[in-house]
Amino acid sequence: MAVRREKAERLADEELMPLVGRKDPEAFEVLYDRHGGAAYSLAYRVVGDRAAAEEVTQEAFISVWRSGARFDAARGSVRSWLLSVVRNRAIDFLRSRAGKAPKLTFDDDSVLEQRPAEERTEEEALRHETAAELRGAIGKLPGEQSKVIELAYFGGFSHSEISRILGLPMGTVKGRMRLGLEKIRGELAEGLA
Amino acid sequence: MNASDHNRWSEDLAAYMLGALEGDEATAYERHLEGCERCQEEMRWLEPAVQTLPESVERAEPTKQLRESLMAEVRADVREAESRSAPARPRRKWFLRPAIGFAVVALLVAGVVGYEVGKDGSDEGGGGSTIVRQVDGLTVKMVQEGESGTLQLEGVGQLPSQKVLEAWVERDGQVEAVPALFVPDRHGHAETTIADMTGVDTVMVTEEPPGGSEAPTGKPIMTMSLN
Known about the structure:
heterodimer, A: mainly alpha, 10 helices, about 70% helix, B: alpha+beta
């Protein structure tokens, strides 16, 4: 039997997970209410289509619900884990929709614009343009570093695919990824100092 | 492993963390990572940077229909699971094993005698009843409304790592687990719902590992007779 909603709301994410593992719908609902927005936003960022983003978000949360509590607290927060599940689902969706190597036909400038042209309303175009400018610490990265990170994380491209898209040696791609992450990490550390 | 070998793996770390290694490469990297403390340390350092990425996206709001559809699917799962388990629910298999069954009843009896130290008050009316008692240092409130009840505990201390609370009920001399596990909040309040209070004589709470147990595995933190 489920714990009551108001009780579940008082629990930390890590306390909710065992309840979700025991198939408690109230606990799961609270988990969705806390993180569903971020999950959907991430899915939308990756797949670029509202209906598809909702499909991805629902599939991701249902997989969490049905798989029980596979969350490992030693490996990070519940939110990070949930978002990684969503991200993987979204990338799988992109790949299944476009084939194994979906976006290699795009050129460098358009590779981040993955949606069909008819879906790009003015509002969406504005959102997408803004989203392309990663906020905070990420926004401070040199373009060459943010591009490889975006292509990998949000586009689902492997380092060898990125190498072909950008016409760069693989070592350069991996080096830029590393430098970019180190710079973000440094910014975060400075922010905490 | 020499420094050159490590640098070769270290070059792949960011690509691995961003999901940009191919399948075989990722598998090989994970094998290396298991035995390389230096790479593990580097990964721990960079992890917050990767976690920033999903948080940095422009916020978009999902429709209410997504939530409704998701929860409809979840509740359908619950109903299906309940209907599948309904014939077997009244009597847990573990209870049929005499040794365990005896031990559980003994725990309950001992608990009632040993832990219940007084009855503070009760209230009945309006189709429901409330019992409040001090039991083994806890304030226990049992609220019954119709067939269901809510067990509320106050003064519960922090649970040991990897432990949750599991409630048990005894009716007709047999003990059943209450499905929903629960944990205390930071104020020491813990609460669970008992769906069917019909014929329940005694309620007990134990600490159990995550996921709960089929039978109580430890000394109860609270045992309360409802009679």
